[in-house]
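Report of the visiting student (M.T.), summer placement. My assignment was to run the structure pipeline on a short list of targets and document each run. The first record concerns DUF4399 domain-containing protein.
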Amino acid sequence: MNKILVVAAAFALLAGGAAQAGTTPADPRAIVYIGWPNDGQVMPAGRPFRVWFGLRNMGVAPSEVEFPNTGHHHLLVDTDLPPMDQPIPSDRNHLHFGAGQTETMLQLPPGKHTLQLLMGDAHHVPHSPPVYSKKITIYVK
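After the run finished, the structure tokens were exported:
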């Protein structure tokens, strides 16, 4: 078997496994969590409500700032975790807080919604290991 086929076969084996995390290291003890609202909370419809983010064993820094063991928050609304080896999307379901914010005001339509936090490095890629919160469910009525 020639070298190109061996390398291609090895790559195919690696690519077939679970998605890799980003390359920016995070403290394996890091914990990110949603401090408010609580899981199961009922929030008022028609007006914004506060969402605040908690983080332990890691620091917050704006995007594009490369400093060890830091990152910035991404709030995932009504979606699952994205691929861990790619930049986190920026859309209505993936809210970026690249200025280093630790809270936001959020307004959602009536209904059941999920919220989850995911830390991103200076380039919006999840850390290794990825640092994400438990997914919570809230109700807007």
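The two ends are 64 Å apart (CA to CA). Residues 1-19 have pLDDT under 50 and may be disordered. I thank the supervising group for their guidance throughout the placement.
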